[in-house]
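for ur thesis appendix - UDP-glucose 4-epimerase. copy paste whatever u need, i formatted it the way the template wanted (i think)
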Amino acid sequence: MPGRTTVLVTGGAGFIGSHTCVELLDHGYDVVVVDDYSNSSPGALERVAKIAGRPPTAVHEIDLLDRRALSRVFDQHDIDAVIHFAARKAVGESVELPAEYYDTNVGGTTALLRAMHGHGVHRLVFSSSCSIYGDAAKVPLTEADPASPTNPYATSKWLCEQVLADICRRLDGLSVLALRYFNPVGAHPSGLLGEVPRGAPNNVMPYLTGVAAGRFPRLRVFGDDYPTPDGTGVRDYIHVMDVAEGHRAALEHLDDATGMRVFNLGTGQGTSVLQLVAAFERACGVPIPYEITGRRPGDVPALVADPGAVARAWNWTTTRDLTAMCEDAWRFQELNPSGYSN
Ligand code: WQD
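the 3d part is after this line
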């Protein structure tokens, strides 16, 4: 896209959103952020500005379901493309609050599409998730493998993909790239930006760094009776800076074609929970006590990406390994024991 490109980033104060804002600002994009701070904080955007040396053009604290407020954002800025991160993403919570998850995640996406259509914006990168594959029969997974979401969060992401695909078939000129992330972990290498979950972390890496920092006595390993090499869950951990770079690559390929395209974002490398613990201890020199507990409801044995499609289409691959993911996550935890309030 010629000249200065303005990208609207929904959920731009969140974990992946904030790292993507740094990546875009570092590469000459102008960034407009909308976020309701329901699972993020303005402090993240202050760190984004500090790292990038300049702030986003504007930050709007709004709920995507507030149609008038969202329309005003498009009135105030000449948006060239949108990256849509804003969503609720806790699997366990989605089982308790399914209607809220469909309202926020699917309703928020259709509200955004209506605002884009009303303002002649036709480029969208959508934050999807490997969780749509559910209890996959095989690994690694390609984009052609069937979706079988097993919880409202994953189903909401799958429904969003269906809505986007259908609208792309009906509206000429719309270009959508849906990126199915596997497990984003790590932090910006500066130690200024990272993952700051509200309350006790659901995800393994922030919980693990919390154990290393003495916030928690030990890591609970949710089950060691899965059909995996050491019995613990296997995932494809991808550095959050690789995920951010993947979004910049997506922006640069939106004009390759119109219509909806889907890509997995992963490394292709599966790592079990116990292998992650060992990698963290090796990388950071901090022992991680753990106990084996029962399985967590909703967990699946293994989710690993086949990253070949995005490599062939964009000549893009991840570049950071598990050691970097552990080192960067730990640096952020050490420098920010109280998240963004220090
Ligand atoms: C990873 C592994 C757990 C915590 C989640 C979302 C998914 C996506 C990525 C957004 C599993 C085990 C975990 C702990 C543990 N998010 N574990 N002890 O569930 O693979 O995916 O984040 O798109 O939608 O569901 O990530 O980090 O919670 O779990 O043993 O305290 O670690 O059983 O095998 P998950 P996770």
